[in-house]
Specification:
The structure holds two protein chains of two kinds. Chain A is α/β, with parallel strands linked by helices. Chain A has one domain: Peroxisomal Thiolase, Chain A, domain 1 (3-Layer(aba) Sandwich). In chain A, 32% of the residues lie in helices and 18% in strands. In chain B, the strands form two sheets. Chain B has a five-stranded antiparallel beta sheet with strand order 6-5-4-7-8, covered by helices on one side. Chain B has a three-stranded antiparallel beta sheet with strand order 2-1-3. Chain B has a single domain, classed as OB fold (Dihydrolipoamide Acetyltransferase, E2P) (Beta Barrel). The longest helix of chain B is centred in the N-terminal third of the chain and has 8 residues. Classes of the chains: A alpha/beta, B mainly beta. Strand 5 of chain A pairs antiparallel with strand 4 of chain B, so a sheet runs across the interface.
Amino acid sequence: MKPGTVAVVGCAESDSLGKIPDHSALQLHVESARNALADAGLGIEDIDGVAATGNFAVEVAHAMGIAPTWIDNTSVGGCSYHLHLRHAAAAITAGMATTVLISHGESGRSQNGAPGYTIEDFSPWGLYELPYGVGGLYSMFTVPVLRFMHDYGVTHEQLASVAVAQRIWAEGNPRALARDSLTVEDVVNSPFIAYPFHRAECCLVTDGGGSVIVTTAERAADLPRPPVYLLGTGEAAESPIISQMADFTSSRAFRASSALAFAQAGLTTNDIDHLMVYDAFAHLPLYALEDLGFVGRGEAAAFIEAGHTRPGGSLPMNTNGGGLSYTHTGMYGMFAMQEAIRQLRGEAAVQVPDVHTSFVQGVGGMFMAAASLIFANAQP
Amino acid sequence: MPKVTALGRPAAEVQDDRLAKPSPKPSAESVPFWAAANRGELMIQRCVTTGRFFFYPRTYSPFVTGGATEWVTVSGRATLYSYIIDFRPPPAFGPGPNVIAVVELAEGPRMMTNLVGVEPDPEQLPLDMALMVEFEPRGEQAVPVFRPVAAQ
């Protein structure tokens, strides 16, 4: 894919987000898909490719009445949708598909029609981590951070400031689930979920859906919404289990996927106006800011604490409130991408002025996989 | 062995064995590791070509294409690399806080484990503290856990 030759032409979330107990996961998928098609001014007959995680790729297509001739059911956790977009761009460039629907729906909170999620006894996870009482993502994804904090002198107040910065964005966003004002003192004085993480440093658990539609830039020119062009993409994987991540202060997958995206786009961090980083827990933006090269090693915590990622800051980050304050259905990556597209269209709930480029960094599993996307609202 | 849901709640809440800590059932790749644990030995693999140790057990060395491996009983010495304290552990690990640690073996590889003989208190858990392996019976299978050397 040459930068700017593929574009997002439709983008929408489910009608509501948060607590939607009467909707199944499949309904959250198809509701957002219908909304994205309406946004794009397209119908089911226009879609020839469908991407979603696991069984949902075919289920969503069939439920919508789409007969796809290109399918991607890549399922590597919360960044899967970013990989879907990367794969769709390649397929469109290769002539294997013309217009692709990428769909997410998850009943993470209500567990209505939600697929099972198990750790198999025989897997590395089941054999080498489950025996030690890992009770959920909060007790695994969090394990590296004390090494990061130790090696770089990060304080508990600085970790809390990640949650606070994102809450400030969420306060202005009517669709964000957590909008009450939050201070560093509130966070550090609250109970621990898994030391050193307090509740506000752990993601929300919500229901919701989101879909995007992607096609060629030529076709996008004939459609009603302002195209959001894809300039660069990257994907990478490291270890299936968090304990085998090579360096607890840096994600190899973050470094690899972001380097690919920057190289393809021909851009550097200086060219990026807006940043979305998958934040299942408050430490992820620290890793991403350093691994993507926005700040130097050991500088991320002070950068966030100083307010540079808040409204008015030099690097607006997680401007929907993020997984910590906006929504987190389980595989949040779709919502990071949605916010980047809204910002580039100029229609975000808390709009950042003069956004021309946006970088989306996704993570899947627990530093298992990663993907990077660079979007722009003009062709290079 | 209990399943764990995406939300961190043991699916085994409805099963009878929820109060038993998991007892691993060796995979084809890991039989020597688990058999050694039942003898009270920590055995991991070394790449024959490079001499580098690695964990977890695999069919080939990850450092060389299809590389041969050998099983070695290692020292059991380790240091504390990182950890969390889980304040709402699965029933078998509760009700108190459970320390989930990643330790770095003297031979290089790291592994997840539990710490024993030490309070789940950050003041008692400085990173890089010296640890020694011991083995915790789990029904028919023992699993490696680690104890601070000063506390032995």
